[in-house]
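Sharing a chain and its predicted structure for anyone who wants a worked example. Both blocks are below, sequence first, tokens second.
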Amino acid sequence: MLEIDIRRVINIEDDKLFYRSMNDEVSSIDLKAIAEHHKKEIGYSGHFEYQSVGEREYPYYHLYSPEGIKLYLEIPKKSWLKRLISKVFGWNFNVAEQKLWYSIQVMLNKNGYTTLDLS
């Protein structure tokens, strides 16, 4: 299974997800091929408004490629003080991480793709 940190995703355009690999080279994932693979798996021959390429559940995306692709976001551990404030006042200290995670879905939607929400 290929695992990619969401912070390494550069952009999504022209049916491809571009990311920086661990050896700092720009690599891509063919989203159109993943969407076609998924349609064959579920036996659907019609047309979707958005083509499904995976599933999402914070902080992960799982793409429907044959070899398996996981986009993940590491959430920094909160100090005991932040955990206490979060519990008492309901403050969310992970807003920046959540925005970054959701930006992947926004980029997918702009290019005609989507993921299923599992949360």
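Comments welcome. The chain has a mean pLDDT of 92.
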